[in-house]
Write a structure and sequence with these properties.
Helix content is 45%, strand content 18%. By secondary structure, the chain is an alpha+beta fold. Strands 3-2-1-4 form a 4-stranded mixed sheet, with helices on one face.
Amino acid sequence: MKLTELYQEIILDHGKNPRNLRKTENFNKDAKGYNPLCGDKVHIYLKLNENKKVEDVSFEGEGCAISMASASIMTDLVKGKEENEVKEIVEDFLKMIKETDQINTKLLKDDEKTKLMCLSGVKQYPMRVKCATLSWHTLTSAIDKSQNEINSEKMEI
């Protein structure tokens, strides 16, 4: 199986069967994101414990396969991580989408890096970059409580 086929398979799987598509009970941080160009909507729910570790993370929303797959993969990968680790993973992912070809963080296992790398192909389609990054920017906003709603038209990619 070619790498591009594997990547497509991962995106389709997470897009059709998103993980953590629900509302986290007793969440203590949340944020909403909206991509008016594509119609993607996401609401991230985050439950951090007293040590700032992600006890649970989930999302509700609707959108294209890339948007849903990205949110699904993201929630899978950050669960159980410390807040500072989550921020490092988000930063590394956004850097990969914008400029590099690799995920460099040491916080993820090789199979987890492969899941993230499946989204690297969106670089070729600038309109799709916003689909892939919307949930990531929204997660950062939930952690920092920086904005009530992320709008992809106003976010830096």
